[in-house]
Amino acid sequence: MIGERVKKYRKEAGLSMTELADRASVAKSYLSALERNIQTNPSIQFLEKIATVLHIDMNVLLKDESDLDNIHTSNLDNEWQALVREAMDSGVSKDEFKEFLEFNKWKINKK
């Protein structure tokens, strides 16, 4: 889970939860909830802040190591990768994206 990976890399960096929260300019209570798997769907912006302070790629927080290996061999063409990156960079959450897909399916079925 994301929270477990955040905790792992925070500890490897030798940072307390307070230090990481302060350096990343995020709420310590939210970081704590994430690490305890109470909060399980952090925003891309939140993860970018954490990853920057921890000096790691944000994908390391999103995927476990075996999944990261698969990212590099994925069948997504460059255009799809660019679209996904643009959505992530603009702050679209996974839930919002799923909602859009469901709406689009509904709209197509209404025709």
From TrEMBL:
HTH cro/C1-type domain residues: 6-61
Kinase is among the record's keywords: no
Gene3D superfamilies: lambda repressor-like DNA-binding domains
Keyword Phosphoprotein among UniProt keywords: no
InterPro entries registered for this protein in UniProt: Cro/C1-type_HTH, Lambda_DNA-bd_dom_sf, SinR/SinI_dimer_dom, SinR/SinI_dimer_dom_sf, TransReg_Diox_bact_type
Keywords per UniProt: DNA-binding
One GO cellular component term: cytosol
Pfam families named in the record: HTH_3 (PF01381), SinI (PF08671)
All copies of domain Sin, residue ranges: 67-105
Gene Ontology MF terms: DNA binding; DNA-binding transcription factor activity; protein dimerization activity
Highest taxon above the source species: Bacteria
Name of the protein in its database record: Transcriptional regulator
Organism phylogeny: Bacteria, Bacillati, Bacillota, Bacilli, Bacillales
